[in-house]
């Protein structure tokens, strides 16, 4: 992880927030957005249903949105 290079500080901050998510959300978010797996592939990898992957993506995005909103408000 220390060797990852991001184009912008925002990309780096976003990745750090993704890594702070609970594991079940972090895994699907990472596989979907950083590794470009499909929902079907993620379901096979994680051995959960496609519906469950979709739920985890939705909940993970919501957690990220809230975390980033807090970070943004702390900067003001």
Would you mind describing this structure in some detail?
The protein is mainly alpha-helical and 76 residues long. The chain is built from 4 helices and no strands. It has helices spanning 9-20, 23-34, 39-46, 50-75. The longest helix has 26 residues, at 50-75. The chain starts with 8 loop residues before the first helix and ends with a helix. The model has no long low-confidence stretch (mean pLDDT 88).
Furnish the topology, listing elements before pairings:
Elements: H1 9-20, H2 23-34, H3 39-46, H4 50-75
As a whole number of angstroms, the C-alpha radius of gyration is 13 Å
Shape category: globular
Roughly what is the average pLDDT, rounded to an integer? 88
Spans of at least 5 consecutive residues whose pLDDT stays below 50 are none
């Amino acid at each position: 992880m220390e060797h990852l290079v991001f184009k912008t500080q925002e990309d780096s901050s976003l990745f750090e927030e993704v890594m702070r998510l609970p594991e079940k959300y972090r895994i699907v978010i990472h596989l979907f957005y950083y590794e470009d797996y499909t929902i079907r592939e993620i379901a096979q990898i994680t051995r959960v249903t496609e519906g469950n992957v979709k739920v985890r993506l939705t909940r993970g995005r919501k957690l990220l949105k809230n975390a980033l909103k807090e970070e943004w408000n702390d900067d003001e």
